[in-house]
Amino acid sequence: MAGSNRSGDLKDAQKSIPVGTILAITTTSLVYFSSVVLFGACIEGVVLRDKFGDAVSKNLVVGTLSWPSPWVIVIGSFFSTVGAGLQSLTGAPRLLQAIAKDNIIPFLRVFGHGKSNGEPTWALLLTALIAELGILIASLDMVAPILSMFFLMCYLFVNLACAVQTLLRTPNWRPRFRYYHWALSFLGMSMCLALMFISSWYYAIVAMGIAGMIYKYIEYQGAEKEWGDGIRGLSLSAARYALLRLEAGPPHTKNWRRRTVPSPPPRPQLLVLLKLDEDLHVKYPRLLTFASQLKAGKGLTIVGSVIQGNYLESYGETQAAEQAIKNMMEIEKVKGFCQVVVATKVREGIAHLIQSCGLGGMKHNTVVMGWPYGWRQSEDPRAWKTFINTVRCTTAAHLALMVPKNVSFYPSNHERFTDGHIDVWWIVHDGGMLMLLPFLLKQHKVWKKCKMRIFTVAQMDDNSIQMKKDLATFLYQLRIEAEVEVVEMHDSDISAYTYERTLMMEQRSQMLRQMRLSSAERDREAQLVKDRHSMIRMGSLYSDEEEEIPEPVSERIQMTWTKDKYDGDRRRRNNTPENFRELISIKPDQSNVRRMHTAVKLNEVIVNKSHDARLVLLNMPGPPKNPNGDENYMEFLEVLTEGLERVLLVRGGGREVITIYS
């Protein structure tokens, strides 16, 4: 290694090092092998095995063969030792100086300085100090294993680096020596490792521990260089191989969520859709908190967001958004990847994320998105239309969907629930996804002490007792502990309140769809509808019978008017659309009344049973096929979850499989 250690001083290192190294190894090997043969031919084996030379009066064995005097061997050994020491004393400081100059190990930076002619002064002093410590030990038997370990470790890593670079076929690895093969380096590495443990296994473990600590220090504190990292290259190659294996065949549905006895708990692969505010800050960071509690650092998590605009003009904004999301992921302890896309429309960007996130077989199978808060008050319908469009995209892609509602009330990672329940309302049997989500949450310290309750809904003609037994058996086979309760929903007449909620929903939808009013006018007309229904509800409190809808009572209001105000108000009244007068006499659609009735009755049952639950999981109904009913769909979801503090709406993708007998 002398030529490699002094490569900086060679005129043509690429030519000199291979030739000089091979000649040096050949020469020393011939000398050593000939010495073995000659010693064996000239001296008895018993004398050779006499370590301390008792058989030859404690003299050197080779001294008895020397001519003309034994002092020839002593003098020759002295000069040989001095030469080897000087060789190490000139090579090691330069190697240390090169490492320090490359800033690979930051705390060695001081040893990169030297004289103006390049002599490594500080590195030479450190090398001399280490050599002096070896001399002060004053026992060759104690120094030899230590030196052997680090020399063997050096040769081991040189061989390992050559083998890894060849196997990875990295472009910057271009050896000039034609007769090299990676198997030769691998053989040399294996022999070095074997010799380390044969010589002294405890010194070998200590040396490997020191090398490991230095590597981790370089990984976390060292500077990145243009030659890269061989271990990172190995990781990349292994990841590529694994992705190609996943891509080789279609994934089995059981691999979506596997639940077997020896395997770990199943974990969905998440795509978390985040919304950013105007300052590019995460608007609802508790979505990331929920994802971290559900995943616990396992599986795949991709955090995506959409910036509206032109990519050519928004590149810097995209980089800032990615950095903000990564910082928030680090705070919330979410291990995963971040992807921000720029699109002219938010719904198009979300569709791109759902389609293109992931790589090969490592793709998401579940989408997590927030609830569009304030959609009722918003004059812009794009917020809830984007939400419903995302629901339709996940359904078309056969992906599962989770919508945490009231996510700001969800616990942080520092909170602990010491009691309480996680309630699952299993209304639609979607392959068992609702069963597994509470189990995954309970693996996290926040939800660990919560108990699980399963509610299912039975109609009047269902056998509730048998349903409860079947569900308990199903949970037992899943190895999930939970309380089981069957809730019976009686068929009842549609109440006036349900009729009223449906009527208000349809009137609001038609009003916002047909009219283009200013903000003040819309408030006044909405207040008119509200006042009218307040009168209807007062009457419905005393009677359950259907009654005709009374005409609104007009009242004369005395106000102070200027002439301009009076003329403006009269013009606005004359410009009021005729269809608004028809809005008062509208009759609700019977299908909407039935859906609203189901939502109201189900909400009453859920609130009655789960009002004190820590978390309520509900099946999320699918959006209507006709886009004209989108706003009604949002109203149904609001009614269904009304009065609940924390709700998780879950919609299966249709490919989930829950394994029972495995």
Label this structure with key terms.
10-stranded mixed sheet; 9% strand; disordered C terminus; 662 residues; 52% helix; 21 helices; alpha/beta; Rossmann fold
Task: Describe the model.
Strand 1, helix 10 and strand 2 form a beta-alpha-beta unit. Among the domains are: 39 residues; 96 residues, no CATH class; 140 residues, Rossmann fold (3-Layer(aba) Sandwich), CATH 3.40.50.620; 173 residues, 3-Layer(aba) Sandwich (Rossmann fold), CATH 3.40.50. It is an alpha/beta fold and 662 residues long. Strands 3-2-1-4-5-10-9-6-7-8 form a ten-stranded mixed sheet, with helices on both faces. Helices cover 52% and strands 9% of the residues. The protein is elongated. Keywords: Cell membrane, Chloride, Glycoprotein, Ion transport, Membrane, Phosphoprotein, Potassium, Potassium transport, Symport, Transmembrane, Transmembrane helix, Transport. It is found in: Cell membrane. It is a multi-pass membrane protein. Its main location: membrane.
> Helical stretch count?
21
Class of secondary structure makeup: alpha/beta
Binned, the helix content reads 40-55%
Round the mean pLDDT to the nearest integer and report it. Answer: 76
Q: Give the low-pLDDT segments.
A: 256-266, 496-500, 515-520, 532-561, 580-585, 657-662
What general form does the structure show?
Answer: elongated
Oligomer: single chain
Most strands sheet: 10 strands, mixed
Q: Architecture of the domain at 421-533 and 592-651, according to CATH?
A: 3-Layer(aba) Sandwich
- For this structure, the CATH topology of the domain at 421-533 and 592-651 is Rossmann fold
